[in-house]
Amino acid sequence: MLYEIHSRENDIDVKLFDDFSLADTLQSGQTFRWKPYKDGFEGIVGNRICYISQKDDVVTFHDCTKKDFEDFWEGYFSFDTDYSQIRKSLLYDANVAKALEFCSGIHIMRQPLWETTISFIISANNNIPRISGIIERLSERFGEKIQTSDGTYYAFPTPQSLSEASIEDIHQCGAGYRDVYIKKTALAFANGEFDQDKLYALPYKEAKKYIMTLYGVGAKVADCILLFAAGKEEAFPVDIWVRKVVCGLYLGVDDAKSVPVSRIEKFAEEHFPRYRGYAQQVLFHYMRNYAEPVKREA
Questions:
Q1: What are phi and psi for residue 83, nearest 5 degrees?
Q2: In b/e form, how buried is each residue of 17-49, taking b as 16+ CB within 10 angstroms?
Q3: Which residues, including other chains, have CB under 8 Å from residue 252's CB and lie 6 or more apart?
Q4: 3-class state of residue 265 by DSSP
Q5: CA atoms within 13 A on the CB side of 164
Q6: Residue 146's beta-bridge partner residues?
Q7: At what angle do helices 113-123 and 219-228 cross, to 10 degrees?
Q8: So what's the pLDDT on residue 100?
Q9: Are 132 and 120 in contact (CB under 8 A)?
Q10: Rounded distance, CA 136 to CA 140, Å?
Q11: Rounded distance between C-alpha atoms, residue 218 and residue 230, angstroms
Q12: pLDDT at position 46
């Protein structure tokens, strides 16, 4: 058993029997619509609004039913995955083992494919505050308005709504050159040209080729989508932080920009034959957020 559920008035308490950090998971670059709220985080996923908090080993989903949790949130936070076994299988690597001392509670999320695809198209050559801002403006302009007792929220736009938007209107939300990418990708999802079920069924390397047929989806964005939405644990997104990690800790190269992405991907495939996506995420979060350096392997 990985967890047990306790209903309490309008809330669901999830008692976990393994390490989990809500903060590390939500703030590790996987998602962009969660914000600190009260003693936890508030987020919008599609048209779902949720306030979640954590105290020790109990995660509370406020104003949530057991059915909502089991139908959506369990999978979204991958509570059905045994991360203790994943961590144990990676302890052969001294750097991952060290990073896990600081952020062993990270889970790889399983987010809606459409929303994740657009979010990471926006993420290219961008920073998190700007990514979040663009997503919020797109949602306010093209998403469903949701009025609650706590205020007004906006659902993430559907493929249909963005496919019907003009490139200029998308551009005005701050998307920049990504406006065309968003429009064309929305059309591919809306008219069925892109088959989500096919993507899920394909093995990792074929899935990567397939999702890169979407306009504006390069190798790094593809790997982010495959890891954070499609459950492809072999995906190893390579950004500037991951370049620094691999080059500095494993390849002995100080100038990370001089190393081709293909060399980094080859190293990852050989060094992390399983769960390399999780290894990448732990090292990425550790290097961005914790000052203590990881010792270079001999």
A1: -75, -20
A2: ebbbbbebbbbbbbbbbbeeeeebbbbbbbebb
A3: 296
A4: helix
A5: 8
A6: 153
A7: 150
A8: 95
A9: no
A10: 6
A11: 16
A12: 95
For residue 291, the model assigns a pLDDT of 45
9: Cβ contacts below 8 Å, ≥ 6 apart: none
Its pTM surpasses 0.90: yes
**Cβ–Cβ under 8 Å, residues 283 and 102:** no
DSSP 8-state symbol, 158: P
Cα(156)–Cα(46) distance, rounded to whole angstroms?
A: 5
Contact 294, 252 (CB under 8 A): no
H helical segments located in 39-192: 66-68, 74-76, 83-89, 94-103, 113-123, 128-142, 159-164, 167-170, 178-190
Identify the helix (H) or strand (E) that includes residue 143: none
Chunk the chain into consecutive blocks of 10 residues (it has 298) and report each block's average pLDDT, rounded to whole numbers.
92 97 96 97 96 98 96 97 97 95 96 98 94 98 94 97 98 97 98 97 98 96 98 95 90 90 95 97 89 49
Residue 180 CA, distance from chain mean position: 23
Which positions ≥6 away from 201 have C-beta within 8 Å? none
